[in-house]
Each structure stands twice: as structure tokens, then as C-alpha cells.
Amino acid sequence: MAVFVDLNICHTTDKKRLQNIIETAAHLGYSTVAVNHVVELQGKKQEIGKPKCVTELFDQFPIVQGKSKPIKVLNRLTVVASEASHFRPTNEFKSYDIIAVFPKTEKLFHAACMSFDVDIICIAVAEKQPFFFKRPPVNGAIDRGVFFEISYVAAIKDSTMRRYTISNALSLMETCKGKNVIVSSGAETALELRGPYDIANLGLLFGLSEGDAKAAVSANCRAVILHGETRKTALGIIHTMKKIQPTAERQEEEEGPVSKRAKTETGGV
Amino acid sequence: MVRYKTRYLLCELCVSDQSSLQLLDDRAVFTAVREAVSRAHGDYGAALCSLAFAVKYLNAHTGVVFLRCRKSHYKIFWSALPFITSLESRGQKVPCFFNCLHIGGTIRTCQKFLIRYNSQQLNRMLRYCHNEAERLEVRRAVLSCSLKSLEKEEEEEQYGDEDEEWGEVE
Q1: Which residues form a coiled coil (chain B) (predicted)?
Q2: What is the pLDDT at residue B69?
């Protein structure tokens, strides 16, 4: 059984509802979820709030279906940008685990694919895509390891939105051929989530092949998380962290698989 | 010795309020699925629905549903299931969603999976018990079903698998 990830759960101030969504996600078999904070950038200087600490959400995180580990919750920031000058990476970005951008114009889409330091590029699902996906920026994004995200919640809610979602997804698949795509929920209530296998099958409607569709909810999402982790480290090779106790001899290893781990252990700063 | 090959979709109905499951019946599930398929796949989907599609089993306590359809286009059915947001029965709308647990070629394989899945659920429940009496109850249930499966396995070893083809023969 693969490890399933849902990288888009809408943040609500209603703590009870957020808990309910995460519990349902654990029941459905998602091992990791990301709580999404959406920020629309208007002016050049705009405050981006610090994310709420996810560890405060539960005393005891719910156990994932079919596994013995509790569910992992990450923070994600989605920047809705309509002008290139508005997107400036600040220090506040660093407190988020994953950063996504939702480009409104073709120019911005090009910039997001080629140069922005982001993990995910969101695709419009609630309206007709205002521009075509061109081969060079999409290929550039695939080379850089940036992923495209399709959110399925609009398709579930409404019939018109479903048409937009499917047509936008199909037009993206024509260009990227099913590579570097993730499918996520964007759920605001618990009943808008769907099981990972259902989503893998739903990917067939979006023009993904069977293998790509399954990777879109598991392997590709893992790549996104690791891509987000490298932002906090120096090129993903060296990671520095504060020692909490100077007397502690062994430093706690950061989470992640051994193969992606740096070979040289660096001491505390 | 030719039979129509079918696929059985073992689904779980997830609702926010467990008591609303009691309202459901086969008919409600059948119409909801048929509508969803014909909405998602048009007349072609509607035509497929009149061909060998049936709700075989519905457990109103746990919300488990068996759906039957032809093997050749079970994916068309499956891809329409996520678009169901509510079921209508007895004049009431029950918001819910389908979570597909297993897909099998015979009812027998689905049943085996379901037994294993339900015993897993018991183990999960153990964590959420609040007092000692509840915990004892769940523990007894876990033990009883594991003993039963042991007995069953022994039985199967003795008699062998005779009725492998338990699925519908037409």
C-alpha cells in the first residue's frame, strides 16, 4: 500500500471543523495532509501571517487507516498573484512547509514555471483557463521539479465547474503528458474529501494514465514535500538546527527517508 | 460453462452523522448511482446502468454497500462515484460520500476483504475507548473474531475450497 497524501485542505478558523476534516482524511487512508492558507497579493508590501502551529490542533493525532502511525499535518501557503512584482519571497515564506502559486496571467505562469522558488503551481478549476499552456514553460517546470496541481473539490460541488476542471486538466495533460501532476482535494468540509483510490480512478477522467494517476496522489506528492524541505536547507545537502540542550550528545535526526538524508551530519549552530 | 464476468465494488458510505444511515435503502443507492453515472457519462452511462447494474447488499449499520456491474466498464461506474454528494430517501436528503474499499471479481473475495477490514476497524476503535468497560467489550470482540477466523481457516484446510465461484452465474 502506497503512502497517500492530500496537499490541500482549506484552513478554517473553525478548529472543530478542521479537526473533523483531518480525522476523516486519516480514516480514508491519507498519511499526510497539508493545511492550506490562501493569500491574495495586492500591493507590494503585504503581511503574510505566520501559520498556526499544527501541533496544537490535536492532543493525539488520529491513526491512519491500515497503518500504525499517526497522520502528519503540514502547513502550506498559496499565493494568488496577478502581477509578477507582487511575488517576493520573504522570511515569512520560510515558516511554511510547502509554497504554491496560483498565476492569473500567462506572463506570470511563465515566470512561475521558470524562476519562482515554489513547489506547486495551481491550475484554475472554477473558471476557464484564460491562457493556453505552452510547451517551453511546462517543460521548464518539469525540469525544475515543480508540480502542477488540480483540485477536485469544485468538480464535486457543481456541474459547470466540473466541465471547467476536466477541460483545464485535459489541456494541461496535452502539454505535460501526465508528468509532474498532483491531484488534491481543496476540501472545506469533511464530506468533500474522497478516498485515495477513488481519486486515482478519477484521474482517468483528467486524462492521466493509470500509473500517473496513482502517482498523482502518492509518489508525486512526496516529491513536493521533499522539494519543500530543500528550501529550508542549503541545496538539500546541509541542514542546520538549533540545539535545544547543549548537554544533549546526540542530535535528533530530521524526518525523512535515509536515501534523501545528507551524508555529513552537521552540528548545531 | 461461460459466464458473464462482473466486478463487485465494495464501498463504504461515509456520513457525518451515523444515525442517518438507518434511513437508507437499496433503492436510494441505486437511483443515486444511476443518476451520477448518467450525469457524468451521458446517455452512454445511462445505457450501461440498465445492463447488469445492481445493488447487491446494503448494511444500514456500518454503511457498507456492494455494487455489481460488468467487468468491461466498471471504471466508468467507479469514476462517477466520487460525484455523489447526497442520497435521497423517504423525502430526506442525506449528505454522504462513497469511499471505495475493494474491487473484486466475486462476492466471496469481497466478503473475505470485508471481514478483514472490519476486524481492523475494531483494533482502531480500541484507541478511542474512554472507559475500561468499553475497552473490555471491544477487546472481547477482537478476540472473538480472530478465534473465528482461525477456526474457519482450519475448516477450509479440511474441506478445501469447493465453491470458488460464488459470483452470480448467468
Answers
A1: none
A2: 86
